[in-house]
Design a protein that fits this description.
By secondary structure, the protein is of the alpha/beta class. Helix content is 57%, strand content 11%. The chain folds into 3 domains: 13-91, Multidrug-efflux Transporter Regulator, Chain: A, Domain 2, CATH 1.10.1660; 105-183, Methionine synthase domain (Methyltransferase, Methionine Synthase (B12-binding Domains), Chain A, domain 1); 186-312, Rossmann fold (3-Layer(aba) Sandwich), CATH 3.40.50.280.
């Protein structure tokens, strides 16, 4: 029997992600933006990678982990990448490679991100978040890195440990990172549609973008509408996009007395079979919302992902 050729497409993306240490979202982004490999596809559209592809992606991951940008190394041949990795190993005295990122390392990523915020180093924060995205599943990025960073920044600003400039810089960088995540994880046309935003008066948008990223990671086509939207615009978008789920984030305590009316208007104008899911600190503090028919209030993104799996299943 002939041995399997190294250029034969046979590995699905989950296997490649496990073997290379790269998040599937990063794999798709590198293919789309830099053409680092060109996997085959099954009749159903599933990517299939060869042994050569796996080797190349592993080498690229090693090169990027050393501090290089993917744009700097994407065009190198596999042999050139092997030479680069060997040089890096020799520089480290022949060590086996970068420290593997396992569960406890999520805490170290979070600590590094906190220091970058406190030092007002947005470029370093971007680098830390992007490297985390290469190593962790989306759920870990959201639950163990991004959400704690957002909470830390908010508490530090309230206590006076950081100023408004720190908070604004961190928010801008986190939003940029999440928008990148959404673009790379999002499903193609044909997946069930989720739209996300914030109701009128609510300008804090990170929670809504996180809802969209969570949906994309669960196999939905997620569309982020933006913040501070009137009920009519949210309903119009949901109808035109044929959304099966609408998610809304409510954070600002200053609109706690007004946003229940907006939520009620949205629920009344949406078709009964469109799920309306809301979350955020303001929701838990508002009994009206918790008692509202046809509106599901969820406590965190873990609950949202479970709900989306239930609906999509």
């Amino acid at each position: 029997m002939n041995a399997e050729r190294s250029d034969s497409p046979r590995h699905p993306i989950r296997v490649v992600a496990r073997r290379t240490g790269l998040n599937p979202a990063v794999l798709r982004a590198w293919e789309k933006r830099y053409g680092v490999v060109a996997p085959s596809r099954t009749d159903g559209g599933q990517r299939l990678y060869s042994d050569d592809d796996v080797l190349r992606l592993s080498l690229l991951h090693r090169a990027v982990e050393e501090g290089r940008a993917i744009s700097q190394v994407a065009s190198l041949t596999t042999e050139e990448l092997k030479g680069l990795v060997r040089e890096d190993e020799a520089e480290r005295g022949g060590s086996a490679g970068p420290e593997p990122i396992d569960g406890p390392s999520a805490t170290r990523v979070l600590e590094r991100a906190q220091r970058a915020v406190e030092r007002m180093e947005p470029g370093e924060l971007e680098k830390i978040l992007t490297r985390g995205a290469m190593a962790f599943p989306v759920s870990t990025i959201i639950d163990d890195i991004v959400v704690p960073i957002i909470g830390m920044v908010g508490k530090a600003w309230e206590s006076g440990r950081v100023g408004p400039a720190h908070e604004h810089l961190a928010t801008v960088e986190i939003r940029r990172f999440l928008e990148w995540m959404l673009a790379t994880v999002n499903m193609a046309d044909g997946a069930p549609v989720l739209v996300s935003g914030t109701p009128a008066g609510e300008r804090h948008e990170l929670g809504a973008i996180l809802c969209a990223v969570s949906g994309a990671a669960e196999g939905w086509e997620s569309i982020y509408l933006g913040p501070d939207l009137p009920a009519e615009e949210i309903v119009l978008a949901a109808l035109r996009l044929e959304a099966e789920v609408v998610t809304l984030s409510c954070v600002d305590p200053r609109i706690e007395n007004t946003f229940p009316a907006e939520i009620r208007k949205i629920r009344e104008r949406l078709p009964a079979d469109v799920q309306l899911v809301i979350g955020g600190p303001s929701v838990g503090r508002n009994p009206q919302i918790l008692r509202m028919d046809g509106v599901e209030a969820l406590g965190d993104f873990q609950e949202l992902r479970a709900k989306l799996r239930e609906i999509g299943g």
